[in-house]
Amino acid sequence: MEKTIKLAQEKVGYTLRLNKRSRSVRLTVACGGALTVSAPPWMQESRIERFIVEKSAWVLDKIRYFSKFPKTAPAPRINRKRHFAEHREKALTLVQERLLHFNRLYNFKWNRVAIRNQRSRWGSCSRSKNLNFNYKIALLPPRLADYLIVHELCHLGELNHSAKFWALVAQAMPDFRALRTELRKIFAGLL
Question: Are residues 58 and 112 in the same domain?
């Protein structure tokens, strides 16, 4: 349902989605600056609005940022299981080859590499040194796939996003900031 709220002398429109699986309020801003608020159906609307007001600085900042990018047409509905099955092996081969290539620089050790069908992450690195990647990495331009692989590989050395971590990333990807920006632009349309 469409709603409006006043944030810092500015009226902001948003779409409220009630989701029975939600346990808390979630805010997302898409390209074009559209705000979506997801909340459990049992939560009072006044509490939801209070949460949005508390996060108003973040909301307004993200709306300004994402308003710069054109609204993207909704992606066609795909059968996620079939799409995953079609691209999983290609993704695994790509990730394994590029991990070996970039690890010549780092010489890190990992336990397992997995390709997953995730909705909101490109990759992750666990404390037990397992690397996980979204199968859609196989659909990215090679330079962005390489950035994601290097990013997760560097988490084997620094399991955070500190200055030391970014210095590790910069060893293989000196232009990582531009790549990260480019990846964010296509994030909503591909994941």
Answer: no
